[in-house]
Amino acid sequence: MESNGYFESKGARKLLFLPNGINIRRFDELTNIENSEISEIVRKIRKQYRTLIGYAGRLSEIYNPTNIIEAAEIASRQINDIAFIIAGSGPLLEECKRIVGEKHLENIVFLGRIKKSSIPFFLKQMDALLVHGRNLPIQEKFGVSYNKLFEYCAAERPIIYVASFREGIEKQMGKEAIVFAEPDNLDSFIGAIYTLDRNLPALVSNSHKLRYYVEMNHDTDFLSEKLFLALENVLSNQIEKGLLRN
Fold it and tell me: Among residues 1, 8, 56, 212, which is most buried (max CB within 10 A)?
């Protein structure tokens, strides 16, 4: 999702924006390759919890994972059938595990680092997915393009979005299958979890719109064709102007 006007302000006269993409065909192939370790963990957690919210990504300060732990702690007291499953590593992984152990929380599980090829399978095992980060004004200026967001959409699961650039995401992807919350605001995050819990069937029924969005805008086949046509047009113009020979 690009930030409007930035490149133009730097003097760009023509701009082709190619965001991060996802190979939908490959993603779908990988969802069918079972990871037995993930399957067993999910099976055990589902014995106690009805709704599983998944997060895939790095555990570092920029993504504020301790806020997820605080939300899970509150949810354990007020919405006792929701659990969080975190796939990813990073400098705060061990600290997060320590905090969860000290609080004796059973509704948040850290899988640690899993193979990139197992991410699609993991996402499809979840009931909803989480984008979480700090409020970063720099993203409002320069834009943001989360790889995980496109994978989440391809998995066709509702999303809780707790990060910067909400207006851009909402404008381009809508809010029929996304619940938004303010970053660095625990109350807002908890409110989003409540909203998800109350409206999960409707959000699930609309999640095909997220899938359609990435198929139409972020599939690598589409982006490659877009780049090819743009380069072809540039070369044609250069030839017409006599700057290049055919």
Answer: 56
